[in-house]
Design brief:
It is built from nine helices and eleven strands. The protein is α+β, with helices and mostly antiparallel strands. This is GAF domain-containing protein.
C-alpha cells in the first residue's frame, strides 16, 4: 500500500489494517487493543480481531491487574505461555483470557512518541488458543505494531495537561468480593469477573454483594448442582451480576427475604428466571454511582 493509499484511509481503518496485517503475519487467533479511561484508572477492550463474541466489550480491567493492567503499569511486555497454570492465583484478573479462551498471549504497551505525554494509550494484545511460545522476533513484531498504533493515536488525541499517575491501589489482594469469588471457585462454582471496577467499591459494599452471593451459593451447594456467577458491565455502565444454577430446588423471591435490606441499600432489583433445566438470578449494581458515593462520603 502506498503512502497516498494510507492517507486516504481514516485513522480507524489504518488501525484495523495494521492489526489485520499483524494477525496474518504471525498466524494469530486473536488480536485486540485496550485503552485507558480519561482518569487512567480503568481499562477497556475497544478493538478485537478473531473474537468469539462481543463479550470483550463488557470487560473493565483495573490498572495494575491482569494482562492489560500490568502492561500499562510497567510499560513492559507481559507474556503468558500457559493459561491458567501460570497465573492460577490471579486467574480471575485475566477476564479476556476466560472470555476468548486464550491459552498463550503477549501484551505490549502502546506508548506515545510525544515526550510530554508520559502515560500509555493502552495495550496491544496478541493471543493463541493453543499453547505457543512467542520468540523474541515475534514479540519485537508486536512492539512494532504498537509503535504504529501510537503514532496514529498521537495524530488524533488532543494532549491535555498530564496529571500525576495515581498509585495503583493494592486493595485487590484483600478485596472481600475477590476473596469470596476465589472461595466459590474452590467449591466448584464457575466465576467470571469481567467488570473489575466492582473491586474498587468500599469493603462494606463488597461485603453486601458477597452476602447476596453467599445466599445463592449455599442454595446451589444444598442441591449439589453446577453453578456459575458472572459479573460484567452492561450498556449503561452498571455491573450486571448473574448467578446461574443448573438444576436443584426452584428459586423464589422468598429466598431473598434475609437480604432485602442489602438489595435496597445497593439500589438494585432482582430478576429471577426459571427454565426447564436452568435457573438464574440477575441483579444490577450501579457501580459508577456507588464509586461516586465513596468520593462524596469517604
Amino acid at each position: 500500500m502506498t503512502r497516498e493509499d494510507d492517507q486516504s484511509l481514516t485513522i480507524q481503518q489504518q488501525i484495523q489494517l495494521e492489526l489485520q496485517q499483524l494477525k496474518s503475519e504471525l498466524a494469530l487467533d486473536f488480536v485486540a487493543v485496550a485503552l485507558a479511561d480519561v482518569n487512567y484508572r480503568d481499562i477497556y477492550w475497544k478493538i478485537a480481531l478473531g473474537a468469539k463474541s462481543e463479550r470483550y466489550r463488557k470487560i473493565t480491567v483495573r490498572m495494575g491487574r491482569g494482562m492489560a493492567g500490568k502492561v500499562m503499569q510497567t510499560k513492559r511486555p507481559h507474556i503468558v505461555t500457559s493459561y491458567p497454570e501460570e497465573v492460577r492465583d490471579e486467574m480471575l484478573e485475566y477476564p479476556i483470557f476466560l472470555v476468548e479462551e486464550i491459552r498463550s498471549a503477549v501484551g505490549v504497551s502502546v506508548d506515545s512518541e510525544r515526550t510530554e505525554r508520559k502515560q500509555s494509550y493502552g495495550v496491544l494484545l496478541v493471543g493463541q488458543r493453543h499453547e505457543r511460545v512467542f520468540c523474541e522476533q515475534e514479540i519485537a513484531r508486536v512492539e512494532q505494531s504498537a509503535a504504529v498504533l501510537a503514532v496514529l493515536y498521537d495524530s488524533t488525541v488532543v494532549l491535555e495537561p498530564a496529571n500525576e499517575q495515581e498509585q495503583v491501589e493494592n486493595t485487590d489482594v484483600k478485596s472481600p468480593l475477590l476473596q469470596r469469588l476465589r472461595g466459590f471457585r474452590a467449591d466448584g462454582i464457575t466465576c467470571e469477573l469481567l467488570d473489575q471496577r466492582i473491586t474498587r467499591l468500599s469493603h462494606i459494599r463488597q461485603q453486601q454483594i458477597g452476602e447476596i452471593l453467599d445466599l445463592l451459593a449455599n442454595h446451589s451447594k444444598r442441591s449439589f448442582h453446577p453453578a456459575a456467577v458472572t459479573m460484567e458491565q452492561d450498556e449503561l455502565g452498571h455491573t450486571l451480576i448473574e448467578f446461574q444454577c443448573f438444576g436443584g430446588d426452584p428459586l423464589s423471591q422468598d429466598l431473598f427475604d434475609p437480604v432485602n435490606d442489602l438489595l435496597k441499600s445497593l439500589k438494585c432489583d432482582l430478576e429471577i428466571a426459571v427454565e426447564a433445566e436452568q435457573q438464574s438470578v440477575r441483579f444490577t449494581i450501579p457501580t459508577r454511582l456507588l464509586l461516586d458515593e465513596q468520593i462524596w462520603n469517604p
